Amino acid sequence: MPSSPTGPGASESSGVRRRTLLGAAAAAPLLSAVTSAASASTDSPTSPRALPGGGDLGPNVIVFDPSTADIQARLDEIFRQQESAQFGSGRYALFFKPGTYHGLNAQLGFYTSIAGLGLSPDDTTINGDVTVDAGWFDGNATQNFWRSAENLALVPVSGTNRWAVSQAAPFRRMHVRGSLNLAPDGYGWASGGYIADSRIDGQVGPYSQQQWYTRDSSIGGWLNAVWNMVFSGVEGAPPQSFPDPPYTTLDTTPVSREKPFLHLEGDEYRVFLPEKRTGARGVSWGNGTPRGTSLPLSRFYVAQPGVPAATLNQALDEGLNLLLTPGVYHLDETLTVDRADTVVLGLGYATLIPDNGVTALRVADVDGVRLAGFLVDAGPVNSATLLEIGPQGASADHSANPTTVQDVFIRIGGAGPGKATTSMVVNSRHTIVDHTWVWRADHGDGVGWETNRADYGVVVNGDDVLATGLFVEHFNKYDVQWNGQRGRTIFFQNEKAYDAPDQAAVQNGPVKGYAAYKVGDHVTEHEGWGLGSYCYYNVNPSIVQHHGFAAPDRAGVRFHGLLVVSLGGNGQYECVINDTGAPTSGTSTVPSTVVSYP
Predict the structure, then answer these.
(1) Hey, is 356 helix, strand or coil?
(2) 369 vs 45: CA distance, rounded Å
(3) pLDDT tens digits, one per residue of 24-46
(4) What would the pLDDT profile of 87-96 be if each residue is shown by its tens digit?
(5) Digit-coded pLDDT (tens) for 457-471
(6) Does the N-terminal peptide bond of residue 598 adopt cis geometry, omega within 30 degrees of 0?
(7) Residue 223, in any domain of the structure
């Protein structure tokens, strides 16, 4: 096997397919109740700054309150614009102030986020629906990417809310006072998805969803499974039964820390930073009083699209966190996060594009950085890496206060030509990657085996890294290469690159094809639960992939609930992991599974 890449890179995947902010150290005190958010007197920085904190959230952050007129008309207007704008430049964040709303159906298109502004989802109740469907794509939901719902309570009109999404569409911190349908109208194809910190009082019906990951939530029931349904820390989850039905269930999540979110305290916008949980189970807001810290917006540089990278770096240097308002940000230099507890929070799928081959964002080997809610789009000049967490050789212990990467998505091609050798490199120990989709595009503009070349998706060099909800697809070589010790992955979804021209293009020395998930030969401890890899070699269906997973054969390297699938017979796998597991065959799209390895 070739030596592990240590440099950066990028990629994207998935469509056509397949498929039958800084300063937390000085933040407010721990919140054990809504009333204990930090006092303003402790929030004000004492040193002068050249750049101001706080400010206007911009024209694409739209805030409603219960007295706002014509809310439905505004929601419909944005949806018409965004419904099929898969690679467009529009970006929107829709916020609802605490209160009760009636008779709404918020249909969400591309690059649209909807969220409540309370500390608890139950502070903001919509008697109505937040809907994702697939009418724009003839009932096929496999391209329903890049949209989100957070921090709301829903009382669905029919008793069931429809959320028919695929990758990069998180459903976080939601309370559905009814049931949740994850399939499009007509039960067409779907390839999701991710739920975290949510309570669904009724039943979750995935129906046609190929795979799904649910973390630290409470559900009234789960209807069915197709290929790979994974649960960790979920009250009401079905019991472990992989592969029949294919449920992989962990009683708790080893470590988790929920995503930062915007909220209101009176008339003041603040950003809440949930605290870390170990052995987590159920929602973090169960008593309505989440635990964590709250920062005023004055501790953030509120960025608008068009601001130069030098200004963003100046804000970071001056001790401000970054709040990226919706839009596209072109970078001619790397954004550098050097201070512990910095927060970089995007709203409405704010998008970073490195224009001249730089790395988009680089984090030092420091405690507690929180990256959340933005998209990195590779530029036309090859970047060695797109996102780096810690420098090469990072070794500090961050177990008490890890860096978290949440709803940070990476894309190479699709919106236009893009290249990157490696998309995401994780060097810092104890990093938590909680829901990412790293995608080398298989459709859109600027797509081709060499046109949007991206060899490696995610490379993990740091020890003790945890991934919860890892979606990585279509890279020219390894999608995931894990070199650190004691790594853990709970849920992995992958497709190999569609567009390989021939067997020679993917030949890995003596091995047919690069594994989707490769654990370094020197690694002595690693564990994974609920991992799936699919192949759809539609350019050359004769290509054979030896295995989906490759790992050293030793007792400390363990896997649970593995599967590989040939989609319609477009390419085949000979094994599941190493030389173990039955080959796929024919056009039946039936998974080959391994319950545990070794």
Answers:
(1) coil
(2) 19
(3) 322 332 333 332 333 333 344 44
(4) 999 999 999 9
(5) 999 999 999 999 999
(6) yes
(7) yes
**Nearest 5°: phi and psi at 43?**
-90, -20
CA distance 324 to 312: 10
Residue among 495, 525, 527, 574 flagged as catalytic:
495
Task: Tell whether 222 is covered by a domain.
Answer: yes
Mean pLDDT of 263-274: 97
| Pair 537, 543: CB distance under 8 Å | yes
* CA distance linking residue 576 with residue 565, whole number of Å: 9
Bridge partners (DSSP) listed for residue 375: 351, 409
265 a catalytic residue: no
| Beta bridge partners of residue 181, listed in sequence order | 162, 205
Mean pLDDT of 513-521: 98
Contacts with 196 (C-beta within 8 Å, 6 or more apart), sequence order? 170, 171, 172, 173, 214, 215, 216, 217, 258, 259, 434, 435, 469
Alpha carbons 455 and 457: distance in angstroms, whole number: 7
For residues 63 and 93, the answer to whether their CB atoms sit within 8 Å is: no
Domain range enclosing 166: 61-257
Report the DSSP pairing between strands 292-296 and 544-545: unpaired
Structure tokens at 230: 């994974």
How many CA within 13 A on the CB side of residue 542? 5
Cβ neighbours around 42 below 10 Å, total: 11
In 3D space, the residue among 440, 435, 438 whose CA is nearest the CA of residue 407 turns out to be 435
Instruction: Report how far residue 449's alpha carbon sits from residue 433's, in angstroms, rounded to the nearest whole number.
Output: 28
Q: Return the half-sphere exposure (C-beta side, CA atoms, 13 A cut-off) of residue 209.
A: 30
Alpha-carbon distance of 247 to 217, in angstroms, equals 16
Give the CATH number for residue 135: 2.160.20.10
When divided into structural domains, the chain yields a total of 1
